[in-house]
Amino acid sequence: MTTIQRFQSNARMSGVVSCGDLLYLSGQVPTDLQAGIEEQTQQVLAKIEALLALAGSDKGQLLSAQIWLKDIERDFAVMNSVWEAWLPAHSAPARATVQANLARPEVLVEIMVIAAKPAPGV
Known about the structure:
Layout: E1 4-9, E2 14-19, E3 22-25, H1 37-54, E4 62-69, H2 72-86, E5 94-99, E6 109-116
Parallel strand pairs: 4-5
Antiparallel strand pairs: 1-2, 2-3, 3-6, 4-6
Helix pairs in contact: 1-2
């Protein structure tokens, strides 16, 4: 039987759900909603990195990413430049990016990822 662990949980959701060798992160949004797309993307990626570390993994173990942008035409290139600088070499996950109405008008980007847990001793 596979053990399921939940990290940073509340009544509505968990920040990370661990099941077997996989980690499922909830969609992460920025903290500073007055910031532009570059800073908001950096904030979201920092939150993802912290959640992965909490669950025993890292950004080199990403398998899949879903990215939602408030304005894909305006923000896609800048978000991509921050994303590419953040990713370790040769570790790009499968990814989809779409435009969406996000939870609050000030949120410019939301990112959700699935990652693997590294094998013990790696």
